[in-house]
Amino acid sequence: MKFREIFRFEFHYQLRSVSTWIYLGIAFLFPLFFSAIGESSDDAVFLNAPSSLIFITVFASVIWLLSAGAIAGHAAARDVQTRMHPLMYTVPVRKIEYLGGRFLAAFLLNALIQLAIPLAFFLSFHIRTVDAAQLGPFRAEAFLTTYFYLSLPLAFIVTACQFSFSVLNRNAIVAYVGSLLLFPIIFPLIGTMVAKFAGNWELVKLIDPVGFSIIGSVDTWTAFEKNTRLLRLEGMFLWNRVLWLSLALGILSYTYLRFSFVHTAAGNWWSRFKRKPSVEAPVARATRRNTPLTITPAFSVATHVRQTFAIAGYSFGAIVKSKAGLVVVGLLTLQMIVFAHEYLEFRGVPQYPNLMNLLGMLTASLRDFQTPLIIIPILINYYAGELVWREREAGLDKISHTMPVSEWSLFLGNFLGLALIMGVWLGFLLLAGVIIPMTMNYPTVEVGVLLKVLFGIQLTNYLLFALLALVVHVLVNQKYLGHLVMLLVYLAMVFAAKIGIEHNLLLYASDPGWSYTDMRGFGPYLAPWLWFKLYWAAWAMLFAVAARLFWVRSMSEKLWMRLRLTRQRFTRATALTAVAAGGFVLISGGYIFYNTNVLNEYSTAAERTEKIAQYELKYGKYKHTPQPLLTGTKLQVEIYPEDRSAEIRGAYTLINKSTLPIDTIHLATANGVKTGAVKFDRAFTSIAEDQQLGHSIYKLSKPLEPGDSLRLSFAVAYHAQGFPHKGIVVSVIENGTYFINYNWLPAVGYQAMRELRDNGERKKYGLGPWAVPSLYDAANTKRIMPGQELIHLEAVVGTAAGQVAIGPGALLGTWKAGGRNYFHYATSAPIRNNYSFFSANYATQEATWKNPESGQAVAIRLYYHPAHGEHIDRMVKSVKDSFAYYTRKYGSYPYSHITLIERSGYAGELNAEPTTVDYGESFTFSNQKDNPWALDLVYFPIAHEIAHQWWGAAQLLPAHVEGGIVVSETLANYTSLQVVEETYGKEHARKLLSMWRKSYEVPRSRAATPLLQATDAFIGYRKGPLALHALSEYIGKERVNNALRQLLTKYGSGKPPFATSLDLYRELKVVTPDSLQYLLHDYFEKNVYWQLKAVQSEAQQLDSSTWQVTLQVDARKVVVDSTGAEVAVPMHDWVEVGVFAASEKELGKPLYLQKHRIRSGVQTITVKVKKKPSRADIDPNYLLIDLNLENNTRKVKLEGVAEEGFDLI
């Protein structure tokens, strides 16, 4: 009876609370908001698909966690917070009734709030106009399964944890902090780390209680599955629910056992243990003063300053005494130090803990919610609420409100207290930045830059956020609602672009971003960053004025009373402060606006999309208009790093290679530069010069006849003016200039590469679906795309004294003039119209490779940042080994030189162009010497880029059709694998293959187009080379190499028709025996997966030197199409079967390794070996695409031999 009464009272009490309805409203509005702004990235997926409901539910649950903490925390600790517990604990009620009734009420309320999420999702498509074609049928079971499998269990788990936290700590706020840290941050983070280290991504599904891992699984579904498949309580998700529900019940049971109806002081055994014996204080003798005590009030500025610092010290001390923030940030720091090797590794290879890598670990944008450092903004919000509410919750507000302390001192004191604790937290991170390099034996620790970044840039962001948090809590004047409002403000900052707020002048605490690299330092980022921070600091001062005016110090906290007090508090000093802050907002905001919107062009994402669409709508009709072909380029390039400017004067030689006269020239110009002085060597008139869309049309007075040439001259100027609102351009900087020709120089003809590719957006503008041209469209194999033209190029490049300028071609000469350095480059043979220019304070190393057969000498030149020279010898070796292998197997290198250049910037990806390879700074950070057995991630990428001088960049160029990535990236990856194997051996090549296969371990959809028609990078870079490797193991490497050489012979001239994956396939078919043609078909024409399982393995010793091994296998082969439809097909394939001796390595010594015909279903294979077997495998070298490699192997059970740890009797 009492249980029901307590439950009913608690339920109705919280139901009558305005806060509960606000929480319900927010839970309802969040799905409406995301349904309105969210659009499926796949046109085939309905907006109301079950997968969309799952996505919305998971992310809305993160918002719900705050309201859940308020409800559960109030239910658990309200009696203690209101000091009613001495009375309540005397009531004759049992623990099960007291705790159970309150918990059940909180759980039911949270379950009802969670119910608002699917309801809002359903209504979101009925209260706004939605294209009926984007909606699927209503399926009630989708809502039921999502709610009962995902939302309701989560409500129970979270409420149980939050309720227990608050009961045991007798503090409601613990529910808020504990759940928000644990559920959306720490548990998923731990799950991801465990899965990464264990190599089993299924573990994430077990550890993650919220459902983020479910979204990862949904991403692997096909469009058909996303539209139809329901959330199922099966597999690891079932065990997840069992585990977490069991833990929740266990936590509730522990809470029940630990709770008792006693006062905190009496019930806390640790407090009793710490209590010192009381000592009777001596009685003080009364003394008589002859003169009265004189007190002189002082309200000077010095007094206010002392009061402010006193409050700051008290606030700081209160935060420190709470320990939670120090412990959480301390654990985060400890985690960074302990797992530094895991943080600083790439593909299993350790990275140096240099400054750039450390900054990537220790810093994050305030709006980056996918980082462990998100904990700091959460703690700031928490402590802001604690500081604003501490006197009121302690019951001291009636006294503190009467103290002669100004509201400014109260507000600023609390703010400074927050600032001090943030300084301590950042001190922890600084400590990690010092310790990590020491533990990894790295010689250099740049403490000065770390101090600038952590206590200059990072602290500034946190200070602005902390001030806003204090202001929100003061204005809202309801603790939990304040936390929730602040979370919504933070989410608005994160997702501002989704609601159309993109300019950093409108987004609190935003800035254009900053970057630090070894080559360019902070570059041009700091000045714009500082202006934006000054602007937002002025806004923060205005917010502080509002907080001072609304600071609660009266007996009544009603809004009308607070508004009346604001008139009294709006003194002249306050007005002057507001005017000064407002004036600086206008001044700094005006200066920023002048830079971002006047000196630079500002446009929203929607405007940029419209601009791209307009280009195609207006000029797409000229897509197939015959244009002359570029055959020669001559450039005079002047780079001014100190001014961040450049000037280019150039001349193109154009030849009409069509069969028709050409009287109109279309010229595409680039954004961000000024193109002018366009002239032809014959009379012409300008028909259109569309600077907005970058397209000009010129009419020749005399048509260009077939075979005739035309000279086009132009001038291009770039000058960095001011700064944009984001995305600061670093093409020309003080050290590390880098720009690409097609980003600056004019191009002839309509540029199809500028077309809008998002089919959803294309539909809005009336454009048809965009797709890569069909593999079977022969016309496209003859079409020359921009960048594919073969040209002779000559360039003279000038740069600042002390710098080296690099361009395409061989270096013919250098000289100095006018205090500047000049470099003359020219190509010895035609190159693609795809090249770059560089300028920096480079160190240089030169080498030469000589072809032993032809005697051809190739000059190797490397330009690199002086501090990044450790791997230069390894890079030179890779270049030489690559040239040796590729020329021997595929033919000669057509140029006399190759240049490798380091470019400024954190990104470490490499890029190949004819005669050049450039790479980002972080490419040089691999620490190969501390892990010499790991994959050489310096040697292999260089070999891959050198391979592009044969495949994809210089000689064999793919046609612009489906499968083009196979002709370029697949061939480059496969042939560089051969270089690795030839240099390092099979074991090292196995590591590279293993890295490629591990990409399949990350959850991804099996639905895909066949390899022949691949357009996806994963297929080209991973499946393609694996397929060629498997084929080489079946038919032999030389046969595959012969096919590639034939392909290069036929299509390597650089002239149309260009090579396609179908051409490659034809050459492979020629060298593949009839008995293995099915393998080509399975790998290239179909999207096939094998499911191979070693069921059991036994061995019997026949004599002293012979063992008979029996392996039972289960085999299945399936074909998956692009929609995800899966069909099992009969299997009768050649598959490797291996028996191996014991070894600590991945594979021991092979005792038997032969191919067997394996059919569908279960079968038994019997072989004989000469030594004692340890392991038997089906497809031990993983030549077939099998998504579950764990079950391919079995430990051999030896007959008559005891299992380890047991004795046979």
Automatic annotation (TrEMBL):
Keywords from UniProt, A to Z, are: Membrane, Transmembrane, Transmembrane helix
Q: Where is the Peptidase M1 membrane alanine aminopeptidase domain?
A: 941-1074
Gene3D superfamilies cross-referenced by the UniProt entry: Neutral Protease Domain 2 (1.10.390.10)
Give a GO molecular function annotation for the protein.
metallopeptidase activity
Membrane-spanning intervals of the chain: 21-38, 53-77, 103-127, 147-168, 173-195, 242-266, 324-344, 369-389, 410-435, 455-476, 488-509, 529-552, 573-594
Stated name of the protein? ABC-type transport system involved in multi-copper enzyme maturation, permease component
- Organism of origin: Pontibacter akesuensis
Give the taxonomic lineage as stored in the record.
Bacteria, Pseudomonadati, Bacteroidota, Cytophagia, Cytophagales
